[in-house]
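Support request, please re-run this one:
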Amino acid sequence: MRRLALALLCLPTVALAQDGFGPSGLYVFVTNARANGQPVCSELWDFDADGRTLRIESGAERVTKTYRIEADRSDFILVGRIEATNGQADCTGNVNAAPSHDEQRIHLLPMTNGTVLTCPVPERTTDGVPFVSGCYGRLIPADQVG
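Re-run finished. Output below.
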């Protein structure tokens, strides 16, 4: 298992960003899942310059979250909490829960091209190496979307 985890970390098709990660500005989130060649879902994520507020537009849904980035070595976890929602359906037809103190965690893998993979929080091997799998989408800086 350790060999597989290390192999995943060494994939040549994308390179991890070397510096710390602090999202700012507008990103487009797209799912890896596709239908008719298009992402099943796409959203706008707007990270305020304050480094604490995230606004998401997904389908008819509008959500405001507070967030923080937890860093551990090269791991970045977006920890968010819903502060406000309009109660409408998101791009998948789901309705988010009302504001609560529950936190959601997303593993972020910043790439050197500016995109950020979004994944479940990784498991760890017995040696403590993160085993990243099941990434479900990516954040693309809005100025890179054509």
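The CA atoms of residues 14 and 86 lie 37 Å apart. The longest helix spans residues 2-9.
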